[in-house]
């Protein structure tokens, strides 16, 4: 589906979800599945310890 809208979220160890934002006070990460996957891949490459240090994981949710 090309019109699929996706959002990147962070999920903590307790299952709590938080929307991912571009930088502090930035915009919510939304768009196509490919756009969201590229954000997650780039973030993991640039900040490899982010998820383990903050005890969260990135997930992509689409509608």
Compact description:
With about 60 residues, this protein is α+β, with helices and mostly antiparallel strands. Helix content is about 30%, strand content about 30%. Strands 1, 2, 3 and 4 form a four-stranded antiparallel beta sheet that branches.
Q: Can you describe what's shown?
A:
With 63 residues, this protein is α+β, with helices and mostly antiparallel strands. The chain has one domain. It contains 2 helices and 4 strands. Strands 1, 2, 3 and 4 form a 4-stranded antiparallel sheet that branches. The radius of gyration is 12 Å and the shape is globular. The mean pLDDT is 92.
Mean pLDDT comes to 92
Instruction: Output the radius of gyration.
Output: 12 Å
Helix fraction, binned, reads 25-40%
Class computed from helices, strands and strand pairing: alpha+beta
Tell me the number of structural domains.
1
Q: What string gives the helices and strands in order?
A: EEEHHE
Number of helices: 2
**pLDDT below 50 for ≥5 consecutive residues: which ranges?**
none
What is the number of strand segments? 4
Shape: globular
Strand content: 25-35%
How would you classify the quaternary structure?
A: single chain
């Amino acid at each position: 589906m090309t019109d699929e809208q996706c959002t990147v979220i962070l999920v903590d160890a307790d299952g709590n979800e938080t929307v991912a934002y571009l930088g502090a006070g930035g915009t919510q990460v939304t768009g196509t599945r490919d756009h969201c996957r590229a954000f997650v891949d780039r973030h993991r490459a640039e900040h490899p310890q982010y998820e383990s240090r903050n005890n969260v994981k990135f997930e992509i949710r689409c509608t």
